[in-house]
Amino acid sequence: MTIQRGGPGAGLSLRSAACVLARAAALTLAAGAAQAQAQAPAPATSPAPAAAPADAAWPNKAIHIIVPFVAGGPTDVQARWAGQQLTAALGQAVIVENKAAAGGVPATEAVLKGPADGYTLLAANPGPVTIAPSVKSNLGYSLRDMAPILLIAKTPSCFVVRTGLPVQDFAQFVALAKSKPGSLNYGSPGIGTVGQLTLELISTQAGIKLNHIPYRGAAQYTTDLVGNQLDVATVQVGGCAPLAKQGKIKVLAITGSRRSPLLPDVPTLAESGLAGYESYNWNGLLAPAGTPPAVLKKIRDVVAGQIATPQAQELFREQGYEAGSESLDAYGAFLAAEQQRWAEIAKAANIRAE
What we know:
Elements: E1 2-5, H1 29-39, E2 63-67, H2 74-90, E3 94-98, H3 105-112, E4 120-124, H4 126-135, E5 146-155, E6 157-161, H5 170-179, E7 185-188, H6 194-206, E8 211-214, H7 218-226, E9 232-236, H8 237-245, E10 250-254, E11 281-288, H9 293-307, H10 310-318, E12 322-323, H11 328-348
Helix pairs in contact: 2-9, 4-11
């Protein structure tokens, strides 16, 4: 079973993501601890033979997935889905723990500096994994400390403006921004986040200047967008599509390389004049560097095998995501390319998060 600690919503599929918080009362911490204890084997009474490889019996106890954000968000929901697949295939409890603080950096560092035994995994996201190393001084980790497992899924975002802004498409927005340099405010989850860097990249390519207002999270700035208190932001497709259909926000473009099935009439930024533009938010799994390759492969094969099923593919599409499942090496190359890209953007925009 997938057990939750540190936040509501354990053991839910992607289809039930919207009900994560509502079902929290049905699963208490005490129940989670009892279930994990019930499924974990008794401690060995004698050490294993010296010649046996460390990962030969993996897993023989509960596996932990650390989510460096609050419960109920996309990273959390997808981590819980992955935990379900591991529990079903491996027969061990998976305990999902939410440890949200400082943009996910402390929790990420704790996992990467912890035991490399395959029993503690990280729910990875670009903010603490590929952006923080480029914008934070004296960060306690780098890509060298990470053992990539797989990309679960990625999603484009919507380029969104408040309904009261007098623009109907991206070209009109650019014209308005150029006529009033620095007067339009954009929101992001904080300095050095993918939300900020995405808007900075758009601004650079469009030749405009916007004013950054950092928020504690996407939920807060989305509320201000709906209330006409904020001019512009990016919102993940799965979250912005319902608001757009209700007429609460205006979606001018999609940040991905192709249009979203959830908003098929909304053009991409590349179609709107930013040639070659594309950016995504994504979620994956990582382990500390030094984790046995056989363990990494076993985790990857279990989760990737489920991602490839038609049912999972449809569930991801319903949430506005494109399913991942790259190989270990391909995911590592993806992370390296992402970090280099965001580092260049952060340097060009002089973004530092101390």
